[in-house]
Specification:
The complex is a heterodimer of chains A (235) and B (936). By secondary structure, chain A is of the alpha/beta class. Chain A contains 7 helices and 10 strands. The chains are: A alpha/beta (235), B alpha+beta (936).
């Protein structure tokens, strides 16, 4: 299921460890995680609750700094970056999709998608055009003017995915993106992500659903913060 | 990358839409900011209107232009000084009385019409002359021609060199009183030859002069050939003093020297005019006159208009310039804004907390902390701007309906209130600033929270640590040090100029105390283990939602101090010239009068024998009765009653170049009646006569009597019990009588005054005073011939369309201030309770769903509210005590402590919390439990 594009490393975690809390509340959320995600690749992350899946996404997106090890996005180490630079890296390289409540309720679909571009100083018209392209690419161009509460769950996830890949963003981090969707819609969303990866993007998707993990090129299984196994998809 | 335009636009759009998703909170913030802006704009406008001019330079010139010379190169001489310059000398309605014949009435009316014309023409002349800059320079000499020619120069060494520009000139050369019809010859004819004079009716009757009588005055032989009448405010061509009167009265003192108003024959006086010139020179050289001026004619900058400029009635409070007058309202606006900002901050904090997920999304989609911060600020700015617009609209509407004299202002009047650009702009900026200040903490909190934490729908709470306590300690130490230093300084200088520093010290201490709130909440929260479940929940929640609680306690803490603040402020509040209203426990009677005495300089004669006093009293009775007839209530009291019940306070009236001496006579009864200082008591012992000119205000600091000096002349005020303010040297008497409750004067029966005094003391309303005066006017109208208006002038309340000497009493100020405070307190408490209820609803629902009784909701919220308010009171009271102590140290605040309405303070501090707690409990009594959405 890999694409024909040249494989470029978009995300690289080396000996990534994350410790949360202090004292008796101290938890090793990630321990020596090594993972590389290249363009065109869809990587699924599975594991039980508390295994570190969400922490892995947070670390990958620079939302949480590593306790040790390195995280690199598009060749740039995230460690040492100021909050403002981290934010800039996110809006230019990384897209997030969550299980629900992905969109700003006061913005339309197009505005939600264009939002990171506008934050980056792109003119409103240009950002809107790029958003339209992204929405059209995900076959929801006709929803551009709708507000989140005027769309179905599947449509909202598509908009969130469109925002995740708008402009030059190529790394999509998704935390249970289909968790709140019915089976058919979930299937469509995964298909969409797969399609984006085939077009050169990369996705790191946290999921509990083994059937959805089947869309991935690799399935990383976490246990107690460590990578328990990495399963390559059958070609 | 195309710059920040798109970014800003995007954030602004998002902020606007976000604000709309929380309409209740947004409307609350907009309304609060609107309130601040509207109140600030209206207050500033009123202050500006009180100044009567926006032109600071003119306002200041007003204070400097002390004497208005109306001179004629070939005619009569008029000069007006003090507040009785010719302004507002609109000829009153000429009413025909019952006993007046149509002929007399027409005669009188014509005289007034002519007088009015004269003054109007005089204004025209003055306008032209006053536009010449040199005319504003100090006069250095006087030269008599026909009338008076004032020589002006710019020499700084002139009589007024030390005071700068002093006078304004009215050229009324062409307005000979006779030619202008100002004088009405009642008997005889006008003088035609040297040695002939016409004499006004008052002088003639007062001295039993008739046509054909000849008198020698100071070596000048005069033969009366005519008796004339005319409006007293039109002035007299000349006033000469009768020698025998001089001699007789000199034993008492010189202030009540009744002069003759004479009209000499044209061309006659030059050889003998030296006396006149001398007396005028004395006047000119008398800085006391200059210092007592309260009105002046000031030319407009373009010289085309000619305005009356009054020393603003708020001058003692606000200062003399428009800019300074705006300071206090602006300061009040800032303080109100701070208070409002507390509430707005709480509202925004709750809103931000409930939107934490949205801010997380902004973060994960690439929004930086700066973006998040900007978003919150943008929302606050939009709300603030909306509030500012709302406030301006309210202010525009409000100023259209502001009465000339507000009913609650107790006689405090102002001019036409106009909303100037500055009046609007400053409060609008302050209001906007308040909104941004309110947003600072929520913005900082959410922006500094990691997106990962916000994704979980929570904003991490930081415990206030050592740095917070350090900051609080530093602020408290700083504020305390300032307070200590100020307390020393206040004993030795005018506190008015130190008020900003006092305010800064108090605010500094307040800031330090507010900082303590957080650690206190945290401390209680951590140590609530052994408390019963309800107070434990309250303490824990207040710790967890510390921002909200911090704001609530801080805001309410400020409110607990306000009663003392008001007490301190009204302590220094000058509701009238030279008075300290609060020292009278709110019993204030302000009596005004204006009567002129014309007289030459005299030496002071402080020694008074009982016989002379008796004679003097008889004279006063005559004058007082007459003055009472024209409704000048205060002068009756001043001249008669004070002496009658033990105090005689007099100023040396007239043109005395020696400045005279105020003579104070006190009886043991008086001394016992008031809590006088030891020094004053000694000075007044056994009814001795004291030259109070020797005292200075600082010497009276220890008692209830103070002496207010102004210039070389000055005024005398007895702040406790009786205040008689006497403006010396300008031939006007201005009295203010303050009567404490229960004073013997209220029980006395004297024919002309006591009834009036009692009425005023009992009712203490301006309307009653006016009624009394109107009644006096009616009595006068019934008992005097109309032509004698020329002697006594028209009823004073007709002359004084504007009562400049009034002010709301301290009691009025306290009542309204505390009423506003109480309402504000209640409002804040309710808002805080409502915000708490909104934020805690989920938690409470969860608890009830988990098995707690439904009554938990109301019990919890009631206890929650009570906890905040009690904590606020506990923290605020020490600060209030410190402020109280500070206020007692201020000399200008008066020797005693501020009059704090403790009862009302108790209501604010104790009763309101109870009311609010009960209200909140009742409000949520019927709240139904809902399914828990999030256990916290």
């Amino acid at each position: 299921m890999t694409s024909s594009h040249a494989h470029v490393s978009l995300l690289e975690l080396q000996n990534a460890s994350l410790t949360l809390g202090e004292g008796v509340a101290r938890v090793d959320a990630l321990i020596d995680v090594n993972l590389t995600v290249t363009s065109g690749e869809l990587v699924a992350v599975t594991g039980r609750s508390g295994s570190g899946k969400s922490s892995l996404l947070n670390v990958a997106g620079g939302l949480t700094p590593l306790s040790s090890g390195t995280a690199t996005v598009e060749g740039e180490p995230l460690a040492g970056l100021k909050a403002r630079d981290l934010a800039a890296r996110r809006r230019r390289s990384i897209g997030y999709v969550f299980q629900d409540l992905n969109l700003l309720p006061t913005l339309t679909a197009a505005e939600n998608v264009a939002f990171p571009l506008e934050l980056d100083g792109v003119k409103v018209a240009e950002a809107r055009a790029a958003a339209d392209v992204a929405l059209t690419r995900l076959e929801i161009g006709d929803l551009a003017g709708r507000f989140p509460d005027e769309m179905s769950g599947g449509q909202r996830q598509r908009v969130a995915i469109a925002r995740g890949v708008v402009g030059e963003r190529r790394l999509l981090l998704a935390d249970e993106p289909t968790g709140a969707l019915d089976e058919v819609t979930a299937e469509n969303v995964m298909k969409l992500i797969r399609s984006l990866c085939d077009d050169g993007a990369a996705a790191l998707v946290v999921t509990h659903d083994p059937s959805l993990a089947a869309w991935a090129d690799r399935v990383v299984r976490l246990r107690d913060g460590r990578i328990d196994s990495i399963t390559e998809a059958s070609t | 990358m195309n710059g920040v335009g798109a970014e800003l636009r995007s954030l602004t759009r998002l902020a606007w839409r976000t604000a709309r998703t929380s309409p209740a909170r947004s409307i609350l913030v907009v309304a609060l900011i609107g309130l601040v802006v509207a109140v600030g704009a209206v207050m500033t406008s009123i202050a500006s209107a009180s100044v009567l001019t926006d032109d600071e330079a003119r306002s200041r010139a007003m204070g400097d232009a002390d004497i208005v010379f109306a001179f004629s190169s070939d005619g009569a001489v008029h000069y007006q000084s003090g507040f009785d310059v010719v302004g507002e000398m609109a000829v009153p309605a000429v009413l025909q009385t019952g006993e007046e014949s149509a002929e007399d009435y027409e005669l009188r009316a014509e005289a007034y019409r002519n007088a009015n014309r004269v003054w109007n023409q005089g204004f025209d002349a003055a306008r032209a002359i006053a536009s010449i800059e040199e005319t504003l320079a100090p006069p250095t000499s006087l030269r008599w021609t026909r009338g008076l020619d004032l020589q002006w120069s710019d020499e700084a060494s002139g009589p007024f060199g030390a005071f700068g520009p002093r006078g304004l000139v009215l050229d009324i050369s062409q307005f000979d009183p006779v030619a202008a019809g100002q004088m009405v010859v009642l008997e005889g004819r006008l003088p035609e030859r040297a040695g002939e004079v016409a004499i006004d009716l008052r002088s003639a009757r007062g001295r039993d002069l008739a046509i054909g009588n000849a008198r020698t005055y100071d070596g000048i032989e005069l033969t009366v050939v005519g008796i004339y009448g005319g409006p007293v405010e039109a002035g007299s061509p000349f006033d000469l003093v009768v020698a025998e009167d001089f001699e007789r009265l000199a034993e008492v003192n010189a202030e009540v020297v009744v002069s003759y108003r004479l009209y000499p024959a044209p061309g006659w006086l030059p050889a003998d005019a030296a006396d006149v010139v001398r007396s005028i020179s004395n006047e000119v050289q008398q800085p006391a006159v200059a210092r007592t001026a309260d009105r002046a004619l000031v030319p407009s900058p373009d010289g085309q208009t000619f305005d009356w400029v009054e020393r603003p009635i708020l001058t003692p409070f606000y200062g003399t310039s428009a800019t300074e007058a705006r300071v206090l309202p602006t300061l009040a606006t800032v303080l109100l804004s701070v208070q409002i900002a507390f509430v707005a901050a709480a509202a925004l904090a709750v809103a931000v907390r409930r939107r934490s997920r949205q801010y997380a999304l902004i973060g994960v989609t690439g929004g930086s902390p700066g973006h998040v911060r900007s978003l919150v600020f943008a929302e606050a700015a939009l709300l603030g701007a909306s509030g500012a617009v709302l406030g301006v609209v309210i202010a525009i509407v409000a100023v259209r309906y502001i009465p000339y004299e507000a009913p609650f202002a107790d006689g405090w009047t102002w001019g036409v209130v106009e909303l100037g650009l500055l009046d609007v702009a400053v409060p609008a900026v302050i209001g906007l600033g308040a909104a941004l200040v309110a947003a600072w903490w929520p913005a900082h909190t959410v922006a500094s929270s990691p997106p990962a934490a916000l994704l979980g729908g929570r904003i991490p709470s930081r415990r206030p640590g050592v740095p917070t306590l350090w900051r609080a300690g530093i602020l408290l130490a700083l504020g305390s040090s300032m307070t200590l230093l100020l307390s020393f300084q206040l004993e030795n200088s005018s506190s008015t100029s130190l008020l900003p520093l006092v305010a800064l010290a108090v605010l500094t201490m307040l800031g330090g105390t507010v900082l303590i709130v957080g650690p206190v909440l945290a401390w209680f929260g951590r140590r609530a283990d052994r408390l019963p479940v309800l107070p434990r929940l309250v303490a824990r929640d207040s710790d967890r939602g510390r921002t909200r609680s911090w704001v609530a306690v801080g805001a309410l803490m400020v409110l607990t101090m306000i009663p003392v603040l008001i007490g301190a402020a009204t302590k220094a509040y000058p509701n009238s010239f030279g008075e300290r209203a609060s020292e009278l426990d709110g019993r204030i009677v302000t009596v005004r009068t204006q009567q002129r005495w014309w007289g030459p300089p005299q030496e002071a004669q402080p020694e008074v024998s009982p016989d002379v006093l008796a004679e003097y009293e008889a004279i006063d009775t005559e004058i007082g009765t007459a003055l009472a007839a024209v409704g000048t209530v205060g002068v009756e009291f001043d001249l008669l009653e004070l002496h009658d019940f033990g105090l005689v306070a007099r100023s040396r009236q007239g043109w005395s170049s020696s400045f005279g001496h105020d003579v104070l006579v006190a009886t043991p009864e008086l001394v016992d009646a008031f809590d006088l200082s030891a020094e004053m008591r000694e000075a007044l012992a056994d009814g001795s006569v004291v030259d109070i000119g020797q005292f200075r205000s600082s010497e009276f600091a220890g008692g209830d009597v103070y002496l207010e000096k102004s210039g070389a002349g000055g005024s005398v005020g007895f702040a406790a019990g009786t205040s008689v303010e006497i403006v010396r040297g300008d031939a006007y008497l201005n009295s203010a009588v303050l009567v404490p409750p229960g004073h013997p004067i209220l029980e006395r029966e004297t024919p002309t005054v006591s009834g009036t005094i009692r009425v005023m003391a009992d009712e203490l309303t301006r309307s009653d005073e006016i009624t009394v005066r109107q009644a006096a006017n009616e009595r006068w109208a019934e008992s005097f011939s109309p032509v004698e208006w020329g002697r006594f002038g028209p009823p004073m309340d007709l002359m004084f369309e504007r009562s400049w000497n009034d002010g709301p009493s301290a009691a009025t100020v306290r009542f309204w201030s505390l009423l506003v405070t109480g309402v504000l307190s209640l409002l804040i408490a309710l808002l805080m309770a409502a915000l708490s209820a909104v934020e805690l609803d989920q938690d409470l629902s969860s608890m009830i769903a988990a098995g707690a009784a439904p009554s938990l909701r109301r019990r919890f919220l009631g206890a929650h509210t009570l906890y905040h308010m009690v904590l606020a009171a506990v923290l605020g009271v020490p600060l209030a005590i410190l402020l109280y102590w500070l206020a007692t140290r201020a000399d200008d605040f008066g020797p005693t402590g501020p009059t704090v309405p403790w009862t009302v303070a108790g209501v604010v501090i104790v009763l309101i919390p109870l009311v609010v707690a009960m209200f909140v409990a009742a409000l949520f009594r019927n709240g139904k439990p809902s399914a828990p959405r999030r256990m916290t």
